[in-house]
Amino acid sequence: MKKKITWVFILVLFITNSFSAVGQPLEIIPRMFDRWDFNDTPNFQQLKPPDRNLLDLSKKGVGGVAFSNIAEPLGIAAGKPLSLRYNPLKTNGNRLEVLVGDMVINSGLYDWELVPLTRYVASNSWACVSLLGFPNNSDSLALFQNAFDKCNLKVDDINTLREIIILRREPGVIDIADVFFQALDRDDSDDETFETTLITAIMESEYIKSIKKNDPNNYETILEQTLKNTYEYIEKLFNLSENDQKAFIEFNLNVMWASYNPGMGNTLMGINLLLLDAMFVAGGQNIPYIVDLTKDIPTLRGYNNIPFNPASPSSELLQILIGEKWKWGTYIFSDDGLPIHYWINGNKINFSGFPYYQFMRIKTDGNFEYIPEINNYMRLYYSEIKALNPVIFNAAERWCHWSALFRAVEKNNKVSWNSYLNSINTAYPYNPDSPEQTRYPVPSYKTPRLWMH
What we know:
Elements: H1 2-18, H2 32-35, H3 54-59, E1 65-66, E2 72-73, E3 82-86, E4 96-100, E5 103-106, H4 111-122, E6 127-130, H5 141-150, H6 158-167, H7 176-186, H8 191-203, H9 206-214, H10 219-238, H11 242-254, E7 255-257, E8 259-260, H12 268-278, H13 287-296, H14 315-321, E9 330-334, E10 341-345, E11 348-352, E12 356-362, E13 368-370, H15 372-380, H16 382-386, H17 390-412, H18 414-427, E14 450-452
Helix pairs in contact: 1-7, 1-11, 4-17, 7-8, 12-17, 17-18
């Protein structure tokens, strides 16, 4: 029974790490590149309709920041055709024009945000960035080694550790936490019974039940392969050395994986939204650190060339963040449930509605639900939260508003949208399979793959 007890402890740590954005943080490192030297090829599992429920996004590990709205017109904009026009010959910040009927309006967007914004909308995915991502086979051994070194962990067999960490989220391997806890709930005797209940738990997992329902012809083959994969994974876990068991636990407790929409890797906006997602990790202790990070980024027009004195979080806000007032499990930053409208005022497009943090708790059945007490506070005191770092939140608001407007064009004026995409792709050729060949309007910003907390 020793193995079972050991892995119960490990799995409790898994659950703590997987479903809560609050943890015991490591020492807050004051300099940007002390924590941000984990650079690797960004990866993002794109979600497309009908898999767009924002509440499910966080559970699936890709929902840190997600925008879903299609902007609706108000006032004189109502009923008028909406289109986009990009002119690369104009100065940066004046190249995108919005046509509302016969009115031509300068967007004021700079290409550093316009290009990734366009590719984000064109991806047909609502999710932008998340710290609840998963490692994959494209993540190099050096990336893992750097992470273990930063955590001051001694590792005996880094190749096997990397394999196990990746394997946990590979298709055809049942989530180890779900399987073991189901098995433990059933088991009341010896290891033989535990093995039997483990098989039962795998067969009754959501993954296998879905295969049985939707792909009955291949059910037995997939079940057999899943049992084989899961048992191989468990055996690898059992055979880890004592050092590597400790490293495995600490790594999963202290390292979060960043995932990016395909159009946002290695862009300033990707970094900005990652900071937004990380703002409340570890109960808000990241806030001063994140403010320092934005100061380290060179001044760029349309981003951080604004004077501001970052506010300190109120005691009320901190009580929420560290869970003293309401217990919460995770959060997303999104515009879910709040309409976005646009209207014309003079020669400017104005927007109403804003994204905000939406907190969730885990129910006894393992599903998530929104927490209205916290979320109402987040809406009511949004200006206070925004004051924590106006640079980050201003950029996020623009991203939310303009993505909603772009979706309105995409939905209602396909000809204009396709013409606009061609203009952007001509001005900035993009090859997602060869990111180094992508030409951006500003020097490439390496988006980190890992975040330590």
